[in-house]
Design a protein that fits this description.
With 347 residues, the protein is mainly alpha-helical. It is built from 15 helices and 2 strands. α1 (3-33) crosses α13 and α2 (39-57) packs antiparallel against α9 (181-200). This is DMT family transporter.
């Protein structure tokens, strides 16, 4: 590879790696701006800032969607709403480190679900990697001594399962196949925000968006803008840009470092102290998910950042590109968690 080619590759890889970093920080950001009473309000505000940009940027292709594509994307948006709710409530009730690592189990759950649907077996190496990851989760959640997992840990586990459902649904719904990624993402997020807005109107579900916004301090607004601008918009557009300049597998590899950054941010900035058992669990989770991604490479082509993975705290899942790029939840082909080009959807 020539020096010029190497430099071009590095210039393409760097923005994608930055997406993984901001997604890793999204769990801390969500904890910084959200309380148990403001989850719905924060979700409405976060995506209310994002949707106008997506609508304006993709208006022409958005208008070209068929009725079937809109309905399909709307249904996917309901699943996406569930992912964001589980992730955000989960982050409130657990540590940023635990949230970022537990959600990475999507990379294990998706190939397993794919194999069950296709009636095919998984490589022994993948089964071993999955076992390693599960053991790591057990140790991580018991870092301070063997006790019951927290409510937040269980909610994040549910979010990982919901992400898997979203990935599989996106890859199988004929109505959304071949749809423009930005348009599909916009419809999904619109559907999700509608769910959040309706739930906000239910008595006892927490503060209304405008009431929560009125109580925000400068720090709260900075965290919210970080989630909206960097973890969602920046992540989405970088995925769209990078998948056209490099391979989906390379994008997937870089985005797959998100759990590493979640652990780094949680321990260094949030002050999480997982204990020696928890640290061992972190190592096992990272090793298991990395090994599992390699062992289940053929299956990974079905899944894609972010939702939601992304779709985690980051951004909304992205719709798959014609060649199978990640989806609004995360690129479906980008990584086992982002089919194609899943929208950046992090907690």
């Amino acid at each position: 590879m020539t020096v010029t080619a190497a430099r071009r590759t590095w210039l393409t890889d760097l923005p994608v790696l930055l997406v993984a970093v901001v997604w890793g920080s999204s769990y801390l950001a969500a904890k910084g701006v959200t309380t148990g009473q403001t989850v719905l309000a924060v979700l409405v505000l976060r995506f209310a800032l994002v949707l106008p940009v997506l609508v304006i940027a993709g208006w022409r292709k958005l208008r070209a969607l068929s009725g079937a594509q809109i309905r399909g994307a709307g249904l996917l948006g309901l699943v996406l709403a569930g992912i964001f709710l589980l992730e955000t409530y989960g982050v409130v009730h657990t540590s940023a480190t635990n949230a970022g690592l537990i959600i990475s189990l999507t990379m294990i759950f998706t190939p397993i679900a794919e194999s069950r649907m296709h009636g095919t077996g998984l490589p022994r190496s993948f089964v071993a990697a999955a076992g390693l990851s599960v053991l790591g989760i057990v140790l991580l959640t018991q870092g301070a001594g063997f006790t019951e997992p927290s409510l937040g840990d269980l909610l994040m586990l549910g979010a990982a399962l919901a992400r898997t459902v979203h990935v599989l649904a996106m890859s199988r719904m004929r109505s959304v196949q071949g749809a423009d990624a930005m348009s599909l993402t916009t419809v999904q997020l619109s559907s999700a925000v509608l769910v959040f807005a309706v739930l906000c109107a239910v008595p006892g579900t927490g503060a209304m968006p405008w009431a929560a916004a009125a109580d925000f301090g400068l720090g709260d607004w900075l965290w919210l803008l970080h989630l909206s601008v960097f973890c969602t918009l920046f992540a989405f557009f970088v995925q769209m840009w990078a998948v056209r300049r490099t391979s989906p597998s390379r994008v997937s590899l870089l985005l797959g470092t998100e759990p590493v950054w979640a652990a780094v941010v949680g321990i260094t900035l949030a002050g999480d102290r997982p204990g020696w058992l928890g640290l061992l669990g972190i190592v096992l989770i990272l090793a298991g998910t990395a090994w599992g991604r390699t062992a289940a490479d053929p299956v990974a082509k079905t899944d894609p950042a972010n939702p939601a993975g992304g779709c985690a705290a980051g951004g909304p899942p992205v719709a798959a590109e014609p060649q199978g790029a990640p989806s609004v939840v995360e690129p479906a082909e980008a990584d086992g968690t982002h089919p194609g080009l899943k929208p950046a959807g992090r907690a």
